[in-house]
Specification:
Shape: globular
CATH class of the largest domain: Alpha Beta
Distance between the termini: 11 Å
Bound molecules: fructose -6-phosphate
Structural class: alpha/beta
Number of domains: 3
Radius of gyration: 25 Å
Number of helices: 16
Length: 605
Amino acid sequence: MCGIIGCVGVRDSMGRLITGLENLEYRGYDSAGVAIQNGKGVEVYKRSGRVDELKKATPDKHAEIGIGHTRWSTHGPPTDDNAHPHTSTKEDVAVVHNGIIENYSDLRHKLEAKGHEFTSDTDTEVIPHLVQDFLDEGKDPETAFRETIKMLEGSYAIGCIVDNHGAVMATRQGSPLVLGVDDDAFYLASDVPAFLDYTDRVMYLEDGDVAIIRKGDLQLSDIEGVTVDRDVETVDWDPSETGKGSYDHYMLKEINTQPTALSNTIQGRADVENGQVNLEEFPPGTFEDIDSIHLVACGTSYHAAMYGSNMLSEGGVATTAFRASEYELHTNTIDENTLVIAVTQSGETADTLGAMRTAKEKGAEVVAVTNVVGSTAAREADQPLYIRAGPEIGVAATKTFSSQVVSLTMLSQRILDDLERGTPRGDMPEFLESLQRLPDDIERVLEHDDAKNIARRYSDAKSYFFIGRGTANAVALEGALKFKEITYEHAEGFAAGELKHGPLALITDRTPVFAVFTGDEEQDKKTLTNAQEAQTRGAPIIAIAPKDHPSLEFADEHLEVPSTNSAWAGLLANVQLQLVSYYAADQLSRPIDKPRNLAKSVTVE
Ligand code: F6R
């Protein structure tokens, strides 16, 4: 949700800022801008629309110091004026910001009363005006920056330049900010892919850190100027992973690289020989004192959490998956023996972080299942479990859902192993073998092109329904979310048994029903009955099931998945549904990687 970047030390900072913004565009793409220093004020270029528009408007200039921004609007529509960077009235301070300044209205009134003229509707604009105000009082740029930060309430990652100062100043509070360290340059960004082409050495800033970055010099301190140390870490993401390769869209690339992503997720964790899951982060005994388990997450990650909670509930452990934004209402059910598992790809989702903090205040043990090393969720949790899916750029989550499901299922097994009351799996060897086979099974799903054909055949439908039970219910909800998110067509996911309690009223011959089967005979029988109830009323039924499945006798269409352990059947079905959504959106020429009104990392509540 908004991406910020800064670059210090190389002559073509401008070019690197623009490349960085392209790599950060998944965080927001309503407008974009850059600012550089030139000794006669700061030079700002900004445009509503995509980074491509900014590129056209930016001269080929050399600058050794600059900041940039790609926006997901919160305050004010996506216009040129509301685009960042924002400047002070004298135009010698420029600021980029990700987050929300909660007390901006109050600050703005006070600044306007002092003669500051505002040109945007944004909360951000108060920041350069405040810096300017302190400069006018005679303070040096660094003191002016620190005094400004002290006045802000809310969440922020900020990059600021002051003309003739020769530095980028930056800080964070509740929004991500990472520094890239190279031999000849420093970078700052909301996320590592922004500068991964140039360096893999990173420093994750903590809330309250203030960075003053000059050519060849980096000073880190707290708000009062007391020096702080942060480790330089090396990230093992391959820069080629952040490109589209030969694919038309990141989403298609990310769907197709799920076998590799999952191999990484599983590597070293499925011990077939000894019949157990090994998670080095959670040695045996870690979960002995747990009474109940809560999973908290949003959107696709919530669907992964639903999927994960099934196994724990089946194993006899009280488990509930909550939408993170609703968790506040359930705080009375949390205590020291509650394990709270936060599921978040980015590790920066404000609602999920809020739920984690609530849980910690109540004394619960908090685990974060996340993709991003060093993310806020990873750092605030008692222990992170990394899903190792590699960078995901498409706004619609695909490979990270699969890696979350597998990570959560492995974690569930570890928890059940620790709890005496857990029901041991009767099929452990088969469960582990099928886990290891998963990357190959997904490869087999990807070899079919049935999804493309079905997406085309039903392209004039009025509404798309997705149904399933148990883990397949989570997949049905996920299938519908993906479909509506990238096609802009109406899609709904239901617990299969719920159709008859209302939604059947919407069924016509233009509401195709995608029925997800898990291979569990009893559940599948009921789901089939529910699908037939829709079919009787005219709906075409698309069964997602292995070949020879009983549903195929009745289904109008078939999306085939390999036969596997019921723990993974939903995951394979989901890959087919990802492909259906992708090809349906492609047929409609939608901007698949950047669906309207959305952003990948949602850092506001
Ligand atoms: C949908 C999607 C979103 C995210 C949600 C949570 O395709 O990507 O629904 O799943 O915003 O994001 P994370 O997992 O980063 O917490």
